[in-house]
Amino acid sequence: MANTYVGAIDQGTTGTRFMVFDHSGQVVANDYEKHEQIYPNPGWVEHDPVEIWENTQEVVQNGLKHAGIDASQLEALGITNQRETTIVWDKESGKPVHNALVWQDRRTTDRVEELEDEDKVDWIRGKTGLEADAYFSATKTEWILDNAEPLKLDHARTDSLRTRAADGELLVGTIDAWLIYNLTGNHITDVTNASRTMLYNIHDLEWDDELLEEFNVPENMLPEVRPSSDTEYYGHTDADGFLGEEIPVAGALGDQQAALFGQTCFDAGDAKNTYGTGSFYLMNTGNEAVESDHGLLTTIGFQMSGEPVQYALEGSIFVTGAAIEWLEDVDLINNAAQTAELARSVDSTDGVYMVPAFTGLGAPHWDGRARGTIVGMTRGTGKEHLVRATLESIAYQTRDIAEAMEADSGVDTTTLRVDGGAVKNNFLCQLQSDIIQTDIARPQVDETTALGSAYAAGLAVGYWDNIDQLRSNWQVDREFEPEMESDEADQLYSKWGEAVDRSLDWAQEE
Q: Is 421 known to sit in a ligand binding site?
């Protein structure tokens, strides 16, 4: 077993990564490829599913090649993915009928407001643990079936997509299901991804007939729901396919649940925050689905084969790392690493606040019509102030969630485990510790999203014996303690709330 490994496909919002891990949870192979971000209209975000699948094959092959690892050395493959992003494809040809609608996409905001007007928000939350929001897959699936141009294939009728869906000719899924389908030929998702669709009852653990009727989604389109770590496997790669080996595909988790798993947050009260395109703060609540009174989501954290599901409370922040990308897009910085240097060059933002509500605001505000806002600028405001204000916005949004999490759970966070690309920034980690007045622990392996899916797959095939073995792998790289006085942090945070108020309900024309 010494020369065998577990591979993880991490299909994210901006690109696809393949990583290979050994028994100690260390990275032995890594490859990454970006894909195109498609913006057909303001507030609309799409990806090309075919490009994503092609990139997946490329990064897997390149990762193995560069590390000198043969595919036969892989004991299993795990998958983690950008959640909620929705694809509808033709069952026979496997071709998508439309681009994927990305989790950030806001085109169904009007439909969500109809649900609000019909007093269906509490009804949806009671079944799914989710806010009624364009973020989730239900309204995206509905939009594709109602609005996409029917795919014209030799074998298929050119009937409406609605007709073809009802006749069982179309499949729908999140990105994990798309990849599992292309890897194994099977139409499968895991419980964590199902719990993000707004079509899955997280208490009964099944697709909900009433929700399927509400959004007019035929159940025959939907994937089979399986545990996140599945000893029965989702299937095997094709020996005649791009890898040339039959490798079990045995684990899948939505990216944020995968990070929870990779951070070994296996017990009730364990919490982590992942800083990626957005940021996602999850706390394990054990076998209890804790209902939130403060704008958080109740979601499924993970499920092991033969065991009950573990639930989590989640605070979803739509834009954090993407705000740093925006700074680069508008030429305020040359690269993300420059943000720390610029932010340190000034003592404060001089009263400038940036609310990065580019795709609306998630938890705890849930305002799909909020938009990006900068307030407090004077003639003396420089780019260093704007850069610092952007980094501070990440910390403030996280404090929004931390306070809601403590109010809902009754548990004070003493240490927050962090991961994701942005946590390489020491300035941001220290700032985060100061603003929420909590210790921050950054692990040695900060790509915990990929690691979590590898753990899930590896446990399923016996590569790791149990979760205690995984706990022993977790090692701290650096800890950050608050250096700012709590009164100062509170004062800065109070003005953040005023800035958020000015961003709300802005995009009335969309």
A: yes
Q: Are 37 and 45 in contact (CB under 8 A)?
A: yes
Q: How many CB atoms lie within 10 A of CB 447?
A: 21
Amino acid 152: pLDDT: 56
Q: Which amino acid is at 77?
A: L
13 marked ligand binding residue: yes
228: DSSP letter: S
Q: How far is CA 137 from CA 200, 214, 221, 446, in A?
A: 10, 13, 13, 28
Question: Which of 274-284 are b and which e, b meaning 16 or more Cβ less than 10 Å from the residue's Cβ?
Answer: bbbbbbbbbbb
pLDDT digits (tens, 9 = 90+) for 329-384: 999 999 888 999 999 999 999 999 999 999 899 889 989 889 999 999 999 999 99
Q: Give the pair of three-digit tokens for residue 319.
A: 């834009």
* Residue pLDDT, tens place only, 85-110: 999 999 999 999 999 999 989 999 99
pTM, rounded to two decimals:
0.84
Average pLDDT of the chain, as a whole number:
92
- Does the annotation list 83 as a binding residue? yes
* Residue 493 among known ligand-binding residues: no
Cα angle value 486/488/489 (rounded, 5°) = 65
Per mean pLDDT, which range of 119-128, 158-167, 198-207, 277-286 is the poorest? 158-167
What's the CA gap between 18 and 7, in Å, rounded? Answer: 7
Contact (CB, 8 A) for 289 and 129:
yes
Q: Is 396 annotated as a binding residue?
A: no
Residue 14, annotated ligand binder?
A: yes
Q: Has 410 been labeled as part of a binding site? A: no
Contacts made by residues 151-160, CB under 8 angstroms, sequence distance 24+ = 151/90, 151/95, 151/96, 151/97, 153/90, 153/92, 153/93, 153/95, 155/92, 155/93, 156/90, 156/92, 156/93
Ligand-binding site membership of 256 (annotated): yes
Q: How far apart are CA 209 and CA 213, in angstroms?
A: 6
